[in-house]
Amino acid sequence: MLNYIIRRLLLMIPTIIGITLLVFLVMAMSPGGLTAGIRGQEGNMRPDQRKKIEEYYKKRYGLDQPLYRQYLRWLNHVLPFGAKEAGEGFPRKWPVGLKSPDLGESLMRHRPVIDVVAEALPVTILLNLITVPVIYAISITAGIYAARRRGNSFDVAWGTTSLALWSIPTMWAGVMFLGLFANRDVINIFPASGLHDTLAEQMRFLPSWPGGVFARGWLLDFAWHLTLPIICLTYGGFAFMSKLMRASVLENLSADFARTARAKGLTDRAVLFRHVLSNSVLPLITVAAGILPGLLGGSLIVESIFSINGMGRLMIDAIFQKDRELVMSEAFVIGIVSLVSLLVADLCYAAADPRVTYE
Amino acid sequence: MENRFGLKDALLTFFLLVVIILIVLAMVQFDRQWEQIQKVRGQLDEQSKELRTINASLANGIAVNPGAVATTQATPTTGAGADPFATLRAVTTTPDFARGDWLIDMFPGQVAKLTPMLSTDVYASNVQEQILDSLAQRDPDTLAWTGLIAKNWKIIDNSAAYDAYVAKQKEAGKTAEEIAKDPALPEAVRIHFTLRDNVRFSDGEPLTADDVVFSYDFTMNPAIAAPRDRAYLERIKRVEKKGPYDVEFVYAEPYFEAFNLAAGMAILPKHFYEKFKPEDFNQSVGLLLGSGPYRLEDPESWKPGTPIQLVRNERYWGLAPAFERLVYQEISSDKARLATFRNGKADLFSASPEQYRELIKDDALMSHVQNFEYQNLIGGYRYVAWNEKNPLFADKRVRQALTMLLDRERMIQQIAYGYGVLATGPFNPQSKQSNPDVKGWPFDVEKAKALLADAGFKLGADNVLRMPDGKPFEFKLTYPAGGSNYDQMALFMKDAYSRAGIVLKPDPLEWGAFTQRLEEKNFEAISLGWSAGVEGDIYQMFHSSQMGPGGDDFMSYKSEKLDGLIDAARRTMDEPARMKLWQQAHAVLHEDQPYTFLWYGKSLIFVDKRVENIHRVTLGLNPRTEWYVPTKAQKWTK
């Protein structure tokens, strides 16, 4: 097992280099090259002034060097070891050794990538921390219920509804929600954009009744702003997950151990919750491992419609502006997280099922 | 059974409950503290308001003595301008004028940095404009400069002596570089500003000549990541302190924008910015403190993604504007922006022509908003540039014909939905630079055909126009893909040209690729827009020296007459004389048609109805500092 893990970890190195090299080359070879973004920002400036700015940034970000050097320079920056300035890291006196990894500076925002990501990531993680449990809770409940009453009206109705929901594009649903529930001329019960009210700064934290009038408070205001985005993020997930759950419960209900349990006199309820359920959740856990990298990626569509500054929009903006450092760093981090979670999923198989070994 | 609820479980549950209760208690406690802070804040606000009234009465006390005022006005100056607050003062006397309420604006993008000089987006500069003050500003109606921080100024124009010296040295056979290095070369322009002595930054520190000198030196420090501002201010040779409230800007060469550069430079507080190391300053995002009418509540701690709310600067030396707060919301989605405005959660909405046309018919919306359509003096124009390296477009008769084949008035109707004004040249028709005698080329297909025949083009058997050497008149129109209605425009032109036997192929390109093509001058015809300043400088696009790599004369247009006019205008400090030169340049461009000038777009803006006193001025709409909300209609402050 240890051998296997080490082999997989070693294999990750060429994979990560491959991923980042590919992203780097695609960006470098796109029309206009890497300087196009910088050039595109300058608009009406005079050519001589524009040239000076271009030169300044080219030099600052090393864009004037040959491509292979630019890539190696970037790789050296993000690794925790490699060439470094003497006097930093460990060993202090050597020009090579351990050092603190650095994701670099965003070419368009002129700020450290790590700061830019640190602003966008919490929002995305929060959205996902609410979305994923909601999807799981609803689909597991519905899946079990449908499996127990297989073929009855609930099973059919839920199956059809969830498939229908799955087919509604988020983009359309989001805009419809805005038009219907955040519109003074139709129904105005939800906010149209952002995560906080304009007056949120002045609000108390908890709901209160100053002078008999209900005041939402900061916490409730936040939840209220999250409602529509969360609905958009969740409804599509029901179909897939609940079908998976339903199939898995059905399979286990007709398995030998379930029949034995019933034969020894347990009630249907006891069989389902004590024996079948734990076995049926296994496939959902393996699916969860694949979701992890998506947690960091964020959802571009929902973020754009509801004006939430999360990872999805950050990534798309970075790509459109050809912000090499930001795109590379995100590809690097998401690449590592994906590879690690795949490895964890494989190890979970072995842990959950004694028949799977990696010897 | 092993799953029974046991003692351990009971203890655990109890423990969990205790923790939850403690957390709730802590939250309530924080809430109580929050209320206390609010109270303290309110008291502080009141105190600063009191301070303002005291300040105002102090100022009035001085004004009682008319002799004092008379002496300051009597100082001989070449400029000081009128009272910059005359219009606002007049507004404050209207019966329903009231201070208070907030103005909420929306940005379609995210502000990345608010720190001056480091910020690159237009949204940040909108915010900075409210916080940073400059020495003088243009009156939005008369466009004359009026003093803000500067009480008055003197322009010492020594360009005649400079020109004479340069001419003499040139005769002696010296190169331009040698002359520039010559220590005996007289300095061409000096501008002396006398500052008001009652200006304070929003933290209470007085603004002096040191701050003005610092603002220039700080920008020019190569360790500061401000290449953009440096590129602008480079024309200024140095800024000298001449007294506690006197500064002088020195220019090596005569330059027509010399005064604009000095007067428009934002004055930064030395005591505030000085304390940051250049590296720390370069990494900062929200260091913003100034002497303008508004301020950030905390000048150091703003971060991208947090709300941008400016509060009125109660220490402002001038007349306080009406709004207590300016709030900027960042809403990227078009639909959400409109929804927010419709629901009354924002006060301003700027619409695209297509949206505007629909929205003014929307009675539910129009019942609570007012709309403005106007041509902005600093709004830009759309054009098509013809690459003169291409034999098709080398002849000016062909370019004139290509303009005359287009019914540009109809283009404005169909593509800009009527919200545009025909462009006859690179200068805004309202500006003094524009030549009133230049009338745009008419839409005249017959005359255009005649011009093309003159130039040697003949219609072939396949109804395609052919050059004298038999090649068909066929070209690609390159334009940015996905841009607003560029596709529509290309199709309109394709249709119009096909009637004269000219084949146009639309060639939309992604922005990165588009800029590369411009750089390489690898195109046949290209469409784009320029935005304009109050006084536009056409050097970068039409002077033949800009033909080289990186220049904006990407159509390789060369006219010696125009070069001479542009050079002369840029060296002329005297405004009326300079305007005459610009007008002549306009006529040359009209005749040569290096561009087919299309139209100037109009600004289309909706504002909440409760906001009063918004009206049209030369520059666009009157500044927001003059708007107000009557007490009854105020909605954000009780």
Write the layout of secondary structure elements.
The complex is a heterodimer of chains A (359) and B (638).
Chain A: H1 2-29, H2 35-40, H3 47-60, H4 67-78, E1 81-83, E2 96-98, H5 113-148, H6 153-167, H7 170-181, H8 217-234, H9 237-253, H10 256-263, H11 268-280, H12 282-297, H13 300-305, H14 311-320, H15 324-352
Antiparallel strand pairs in A: 1-2
Helix pairs in contact in A: 1-15, 5-6, 5-8, 5-9, 6-9, 7-8, 9-11, 10-11, 12-15
Chain B: H1 7-63, H2 66-74, H3 86-92, E1 102-107, H4 122-131, E2 136-138, E3 145-147, E4 150-157, H5 159-171, H6 176-181, E5 189-195, H7 209-220, H8 227-233, E6 236-243, E7 246-251, H9 258-264, H10 270-273, H11 278-283, E8 294-296, E9 308-312, E10 325-330, H12 334-342, E11 348-350, H13 353-359, H14 363-366, E12 369-374, E13 381-386, H15 396-404, H16 408-415, E14 420-422, H17 445-454, E15 458-459, E16 465-466, E17 474-480, H18 486-498, E18 503-509, H19 511-520, E19 525-530, H20 539-542, H21 560-571, H22 575-592, E20 595-601, E21 603-608, E22 616-617, E23 620-621
Parallel strand pairs in B: 1-10, 17-18, 17-19
Antiparallel strand pairs in B: 2-3, 4-5, 5-7, 6-7, 8-9, 9-10, 11-21, 12-21, 13-19, 13-20, 14-20, 15-16, 22-23
